[in-house]
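Q: Start with the shorter request: fold the first protein.
A: Done. Sequence, then structure:
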Amino acid sequence: MSDPTPEQDLRDLRHLLAQIRHKEAELTDLRGDLYAVLGRLALAIQTTPLPAPKESVSA
């Protein structure tokens, strides 16, 4: 098997860079989704009333 040519190496490099850019965009979208879910969870925690404390039973 022969070594790839510089032209093939350059095409491979461009392809890998395009894949990296695509993955970065996916991660940015996922990060936005994560922050949205965390925000809703924080709001739910803040607005959910705590249950009344139960009376302790003395023996």
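Q: Next, the second protein, separately.
A: Sequence, then structure:
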Amino acid sequence: LQHEEKKPQVFFHLGRALVAMVAENASPEARAAAYEDAIVVFRQGWQVAPLDTTFPLEIAFLYGELGRFAEAEPLYRDALTRDPCSDAVKQVYRYHQNSWQKSMRAHDAAPPGADPPPPK
């Protein structure tokens, strides 16, 4: 495994596997825990390949899924700065913005003291 630690694709596939394991049938708590683990793995991959824009986009997406939209925002902005013509980056950034707006509307409509919605 030490030899594989230099290969960013190992971190990409491991992070994606963690997300896929809880894709549909997991509890919100299990999904959140797997997403947090995947974020750690994607960050390790990003350290190995700091110019690879895949890792920050994966992290940003998971932050959004966890409702941590403000943490995702600079990662998306950086991706857009690096590749302003990328339709894929623009699309995931729009999804992020729409999700954040929906979350804010849901929070504003909730009664005072209500718990925030669980992660998707």
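Q: Describe the second briefly.
A: The longest helix spans residues 87-109. Helices lie at 8-21, 28-48, 54-65, 69-82, 87-109.
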